[in-house]
Amino acid sequence: MDFDLSGRSEAWLEKLQTFFDHEVLPRHRAWLAHVARGEAAPFMGDLQHKARAAGLWNLGLPELSDDEPGTRLSNLEYAPLAEIMGRLFWAPEVFNCQAPDVPNMIALQNCATSEQKARWLQPLLEAKTRSAFGMTEPDVASSDATNIATRMVRDGDDYVINGRKWFITGAAHPRCSFLIVMGVTDSGADRTSRHSCIIVPMETPGVRLVRRLRWMGCEDHVAPIGELTFDNVRVPRANLLGAEGEGFKVAQIRLGPARIHHCMRSIGLCELLIELMMVRSSERSAFGRAVIQYDTVQRWIAESRVELEQARLLAYRCAWRLDQAGHQDAWRDVSLIKVAVPAMLQRVADRAMQVFGAMGGSDDTPIHQALAWGRLLRIGDGPDEVHLRQIFRMEPMPSWSIADSPYLSAHSS
Ligand SMILES: Cc1cc2nc3c(=O)[nH]c(=O)nc-3n(C[C@H](O)[C@H](O)[C@H](O)COP(=O)(O)OP(=O)(O)OC[C@H]3O[C@@H](n4cnc5c(N)ncnc54)[C@H](O)[C@@H]3O)c2cc1C
User: Fold this and answer.
1) 141 C-alpha vs ligand 1 centroid, how far in Å?
2) CATH number given to 7-98
3) Model pTM?
4) Would you identify the CATH topology of the domain 130-241?
5) Of all protein residues, whose CA lies closest to atom 24 belonging to ligand 1?
6) Where does 254-393 sit in CATH, by number?
7) pLDDT, tens only, 110-155
């Protein structure tokens, strides 16, 4: 394991940092003002154009082929770049690195036919459209994906879809043109082979965006969250992604990258939170001394640093493992970071909020959103408990017993 950045990776990191400092960060206040008025930021297209011209495009796709636009980086090379993007919730979109589109692109790269790629993947790679992934349903415990109940019934050359989905990130975006929807195609099959994934264009009759959802009062302006109903939605069989019964496989191919990218960005966000704590506490005094001089505050900052460095190493190892072994062999590592990083983000954001006092909960800082984001990541893409169960199951049982353990002193039973 060698986590030193390669010369190539360092060069891209420097390029991205410069672009972020000169082109993205100076527009942050304008971006906030636009979304507060319910408008799209008018400079996004220009920024994307510049980023793409600089090669800072589609950086989160390790399987990018030579004829696809952008720069192919390994997961490990991408990790520090994603951290920079994570400092602002909207920055990933500038580089076409935003969720849920990137995991959807990865699913399409791996599972789509060449016709599907031309129709659905290519426009995503070019940022000409947006997408969503629809698995979760209000009526069933969706952390157990075998519960997903939306029906997809074969009828001639079509599938007819009926069901309801909610908390679908990106589905309420005005430019979202299609969803990858998971549903039951064969209720009689084995529990993990009942489901399939189908590409459903948003404009298909019967697809209805019921409402836009918020999470803990926060709006996702980059990929607005939607609740949808599917009422006799008819899509051609050719829209099936992968084979019938392979819904779990498709979902898992996109979930690994979705999880690790969220973690990488969260680590960058924590770097910003530590900086905010440092500056704020050094600028204010209470009871005769600067807030930063209090042991408690120093300890919060130091503990945040310890936890952040641990999380980063774990994320790097996961990225490295994905690069070396692929999705199938990196599941344990993905679960480890999926539990560790959101919990770390939640703790660091909570400390930052305390350091900031009342301001920490206001819209003037990103702290309450960071806290909400950390909380969300403990549920979304699989709740903590599901990952912890997975981690426990992979824990090997030692071959010795307590009575004969060489690590324990002799005792009579
Ligand atoms: C902001 C946001 C965005 C989202 N975006 C998407 C999206 O784009 N697409 C999509 O399909 N879904 C999305 N989701 C949904 C998310 O993936 C689900 O909420 C999650 O999988 C949990 O499903 P559930 O809400 O049905 O909870 P349930 O399945 O009802 O689980 C509730 C709780 O039960 C407990 N539990 C479950 N299993 C176990 C276990 N094995 N052991 C112990 N306890 C357990 C856990 O505490 C869990 O939190 C999003 C959610 C949020 C909040």
Assistant:
1) 7
2) 1.10.540.10
3) 0.96
4) Butyryl-CoA Dehydrogenase, subunit A; domain 2 (2.40.110)
5) 142
6) 1.20.140.10
7) 999 999 999 999 999 999 999 999 999 999 999 999 999 999 999 9
